[in-house]
Amino acid sequence: MGILEVKGVSKHFGGLLALDDVNLSIQQNTVHAIIGPNGAGKSTLLNCFIGKLLPDTGTVMFNNKSLLGLAPYQINQAGISRVFQTPEVFSELSILENVMIPAFAHRDGAFHLSPFKSLARETSIREQAEKILQDVGLIDERHHTASAMSRGNKRRLEMAMCLVQQPKLLLLDEPTAGMSRSDTNNTIDLLKTINEAHNITFVVIEHDMHVVFSLADRISVLSQGHVIVEDYPDKIKGHPEVQEAYLGTAESE
Amino acid sequence: MLKTPHTSDRTLMIVFTILVLAGPLILAPVGAGYPDLMQRFVIYGIFAIGFNILFGLTGYLSFGHAAFLGVGSYSAIWMLKLLSVNIVPAIIFSVVVSGLFALLIGYISLRRSGIYFSILTLAFAQMSYNLAYSVLTPITNGETGLQLELDDPRILDGASESGQVASPSLFGFEMSDTAVVPFLGMDLQFNVGFYVSALILIGMFYLSLRIFRSPFGMMLRAIKSNQTRLNYTGFNSRPYALTAFVISGMYAGLAGALLVCMDPLAGAERMQWTASGEVVLMTIMGGAGTLIGPVLGAGIIKYFENIFSRINESVVEGWFSALPEGVTDVLVAVVSPFLGSGWHISLGLIFMLVVIFLPGGLVEGAGRLMNLVVRLWQSRKTGASQSDTGPADGVTPAEEVSHRSVNTRES
C-alpha cells in the first residue's frame, strides 16, 4: 500500500478528457516522477492532489484518508506540501518570516489566535526557521525581503518553507522550470540532500529528462490523460511506448 | 523588523505618549489648541488606527467603516440615556455591539476580495445609513438624531432633577470641563474629555503595536502579500481576516462612542459613505500599514477641515492687503476657492500629491527627509574629518576634494 493511492481518476473539461482512469501508487520515501508530453494531464493530476480540482470519478487516498473535497489548507495540514511551478513566496515579507509562517502553521494548526504574543519571543519557531535556512543556504540574507531574490533563490526559499513543516509528501511542479543549467543542477543537489536527510516522499512533475533521471526512483509516463507505463528509470529510457508518446512512431507518419 | 523590536518600539511608545499628552501645548501655537478639535484629532486617530489594522495589514479595503462608527455612537448614546451619564458602560456596550455588527458584515463581505469586498462593505454601510435615517426611526430618531434629554430614565444614576441636562462624565469628571492656563501669551486649554480620549488613544496605539509585532500580525501581512499561498501553507486565512475586520470594527465603535461622550449627539450622517471615505484618506495619507501614519493622517485631515474651512474671503483679503489693489483682487480670486468652503479642493490636491510622490504616505516622506538629513550630516562629518587629517597624511588639496565628493555620493 503506497502513501498516495490514486484509483480510477478521470477529469473532463467540457468535451476534453484531461484524465482518463489514472491509477498510481506512490511508495513511501521514494522519488516518484510523473512525466509526459505537453497536455498529457500532469498538472491536472497534481491539482487533483492538492484540492484545487475535484476529479469527476475516482479516489485519491493519502495514508488511507481521502483528499477529495478538502480545502488546500486541510491538505497541507494532512502532511502534503507543494512547490509551485513559478515560485510563490510572500514577497513583501522577510525571508525569515517567509519560513516562520509555515512553521507556525505546522505547530499551531490552521487557525490559532495569539494577537498579543510578541513575534520576537517565538524563539523556537525562529530557530527552526533559521536552521532550515542554513540548510538551503539562505541564512545570511534572512532579514532581506523576498521580492528581490533570484528565481533560483526563491525556489530554495520555497523548499525551506515546505521543509520546515516536515511534510510526509512533497509535490514538486516542474521545480527547475525556467532555470539556468547551473541553477538546475543546484536544485537537483538540494532535492537529493533533502530526500536523503528527511524521510519525505517526493512526487515530481517534470519536463527536463536530465532532472527526472538524476532524481527519480520510479517514473510514471502520462500520455493523453492515461498512465501508459510505470517503471524504474533505466527501463523507461528505452521503452518503445514512451518513445512513441514523445516522438511519435515511424508507422504513424 | 525582527532585529531590535524592543528598544525601538519602546522609544516609539514613549515619544508617542509624550506627544499626545502634550497636545494642548503643541497645538495651541498652530491655532488648534481648543478642546473640540483636539478631541476630534484623538478620536479620529483611534478610528484610523483600527482601520489600518484591516487595510494596512491585510490589504482588504473597507469602504463601510463609518457604519461601525455610527453603530458605536448610537449604542453609546442609548447607554447614556438608559443607564447613566458615566461613559464607562457606554463605551463598553458600543464596543461590544459594533464588534458583533462587524462580525456579521465581515463574515459576509470577506467571502469576496478586492473590489468586490469594497463594494460589499460600501453597500452594507449605505444600508445601515438608510436604516438609521428612516426605517429605524424609533431607535435612531431619524434625521433629527439622538441627544440627551431631561426625561431620560438613567436607571443607575437617577434622572436629572435640577432641570438641567447632565453631560457625560467619568466618575464625576465632566468631559466638557476645561482648565485654561495662560502660557507665553497663549491660553492652553486642558480638557477632561481630551485627556480621557488621549489615554484611550495611547492604549489603543499600544494594542495595535502589539498586533503588528505578533505572529497574528505577520499572518495578516501574509494575507496582503499572497493569500493563496497562505492557504497552501496550511492556514485557513479567512478567520484571520475576519478577526482583523472585527478588531477594526471595534476600534471604529470605540471612536463612535467617544464622539458621543464628548458631544452627546448621534445622527445618521455619521454613517454616510463620505465618512467611510474619510478614514481611507486618513490612512493612506499618513501611510497605510505603518504604525503612526493613520494618527498623523487623521490629525492632518481634521486640522484642514477645521482650520482651512474657517478662512473666508475677508481673511484672505487681510493677508494681501499690503499689496496694490489690483494685485490683491487677483490673488484673492486665485487663492480663495481653495480655502473656506472650498477646503476640499486643497485637501484633494494634497492627497493627490501624497499618493503620486509618496505612495507610503507622510511616514515615507518623513523617512526620506530623515535619511537626507542623516546623509548630509554624515557627509559633512566625514568631509570635516578628512580636511583635518588630510594635509598631515600628505594628501594634496586636489585629491582631498575629489575624495570628499566621492564620499558625499557614496554615503
UniProtKB/TrEMBL annotation, chain A:
Keywords: ATP-binding, Nucleotide-binding, Transport. PROSITE patterns: ABC_TRANSPORTER_2. Residues 4-249 form the ABC transporter domain. Pfam families: ABC_tran (PF00005). It comes from the Bacteria. GO terms for molecular function: ATP binding. This is ABC transporter ATP-binding protein. InterPro entries: AAA+_ATPase, ABC_AA/LPS_Transport, ABC_transporter-like_ATP-bd, P-loop_NTPase.
From TrEMBL, chain B:
This is Branched-chain amino acid ABC transporter permease. It comes from the Bacteria. It holds the Pfam family BPD_transp_2. Residues 383-411 are annotated as: Disordered. It is found in: Cell inner membrane. It is a multi-pass membrane protein. It comes from Marinobacter suaedae. InterPro entries: ABC_transp_permease, LivM-like. The chain crosses the membrane at residues 12-34, 41-63, 83-108, 115-136, 192-212, 239-260, 280-304, 345-363. Keywords: Cell membrane, Membrane, Transmembrane, Transmembrane helix. Its main location: membrane. Residues 400-411 have a biased composition (Basic and acidic residues).
